[in-house]
Amino acid sequence: MSEPNDDAKADPAGTPAGPPASVTSLPEAIKAVPVRHYGRWVAAVAVLAVLGLLVNAFANANINYAAIPDFLFDSAVLKGLRNTVIITVVAMLVGLLLGIVLAVMRLSKNPVTSSVAWGYIWFFRGTPVYVQLLIWFNLALIFPVINLGFYKDEMNQFMTPFMAALLGLGLNEAAYMSEIVRAGIQSVDEGQTEASHALGMTQSQNLRRVVLPQAMRVIVPPTGNEFINMLKTSSLAAQAAQYAELLRSTTDIGNTTGATVEMLFLAAVWYLVLTSVFSVGQYYLERRYARGTTRNLPPTPWQRIKQNLGSVRRSPVAGGA
């Protein structure tokens, strides 16, 4: 006699076995219900309400906004704008070069040079830049005559508003740049220095050819931030050193025309324009020094726009042949 089919066998309790697993019904699809975040909507409404109140307050304020475009390209304003860019670039250059020297001195094994660098950083970081500008502008009270051997003159003649602003901003910036450069140098692996010394490089050659190029990836981002901060800090030179930069130029126009607040808004507009332009330059500079860290750099905003436009052009037209 033939054996009965396994599928027709009953279980030990005597109940006939069910249908095979291959014909069982599939489970119902899970219907996921997203969690409602009511707090987000409340926060969004609150933020929009505050923004609306601010816009309404400025719109109904007793301010002649038409005066802002009237003086936007005034010759005095453009001269102050030029002076702001000049003092920012030159002071930042002084701060960067002196900061590199101070960073090397700070990392030196010579206790004298490292102590002098530490004392410099301690003093200039510990006192407000406004106070330093005032001291430089009134330096004739301490040194009536400047005598450098090859140059001798009255201090009042030498310490012009531009020179006072340059020394005050540049020497103060050097203290901060030295810490940025020191952090960048210390971020380079010590094996790089040992390898360069094994190849016969001197300490200065190792610093210029090996350490600093690799440290730039760490140095550039905070340096860009310091540059933008210097652009705004230069406004202190208008009050402390009587330097004719952007804020002083707009303030003089405001005192003459009576549009004091309007000219402050005008200065804010130009500061925003300058910081936006230099921020774009900082982005591409950081991108250049980041080439060795990632294999494929992310596309720039302009490249993203071109890619999006290209994808739109290649997409098929609906209803086309």
Outline of this structure?
With 321 residues, the chain is mainly alpha-helical.
Explain this structure.
The chain is flat. With 321 residues, it is an all-alpha fold. The longest helix has 33 residues, at 75-107. Helices cover 67% and strands 2% of the residues. It has a two-stranded antiparallel sheet with strand order 1-2. The protein has 13 helices and two strands, in the order H-H-H-H-H-E-E-H-H-H-H-H-H-H-H. Mean pLDDT is 83; it is low at 317-321. The termini are far apart. It has helices at residues 38-59, 67-70, 75-107, 111-126, 129-137, 155-158, 161-186, 190-198, 203-233, 236-240, 246-257, 260-289, 301-314; strands at 145-147, 152-154.
By DSSP (H or I, 4+ residues per run), the number of helices equals 13
Number of strands: 2
Q: What portion of residues belong to β-strands?
A: under 5%
Give the low-pLDDT segments. 317-321
Q: Which bin fits the share of residues in helices?
A: 55-70%
Major sheet characteristics: 2 strands, antiparallel
- Taking the alpha carbons of the first and last residues, their distance comes to 70 Å
Which sequence of SSEs, written as H and E, runs from N to C?
HHHHHEEHHHHHHHH
Shape: flat
Strand line-up of the largest beta sheet: 1-2
How many whole angstroms does the radius of gyration measure? 34 Å
Mean pLDDT: 83
Overall structural class, as computed from helix and strand content, comes to: mainly alpha
